[in-house]
Amino acid sequence: IYGDYDGNSLIDAVDVSNLMAAVSSNTALTAAQKKAVDIDGMRNVSTNDVATIKRVVEGKDLNQVSPSKSR
Q1: SS3 16
Q2: Which residues contact 39 (CB under 8 A, 6 or more apart)?
Q3: Cα–Cα dist 3/17, whole Å
Q4: 25-39: pLDDT as tens digits
């Protein structure tokens, strides 16, 4: 599921919090995590991806979490 950092089949605040911590500390992500959270398809995970997932969790941007055409 795109946006599901922890792989529990939900996109929630825990995903946002854990992903932000990982991005902030440059923690290496697994291949599955990268695939799930590289929302913009730029082949790197950034604060832009975190912000998009956060908007989805807040119900503000429900159309943004879908497979990128560049995958």
Answers
A1: helix
A2: 2, 3, 48, 49, 52, 53, 64, 65, 68
A3: 12
A4: 999 999 999 999 999
The set of residues, in sequence order, having a beta carbon less than 8 Å from that of 71 and lying 6+ positions away, is 35, 41
- What is the tally of helices (H) and strands (E) in the chain? 3, 0
Distance between CA 67 and CA 10 in Å, rounded?
16
> How big is the chain, counted in residues?
71
Q: Is the pTM of this model over 0.70?
A: yes
Q: Identify the residue whose tokens are 């911590």.
A: 21
Q: How far apart, in whole angstroms, are the C-alpha atoms of residue 40 and residue 63?
A: 12
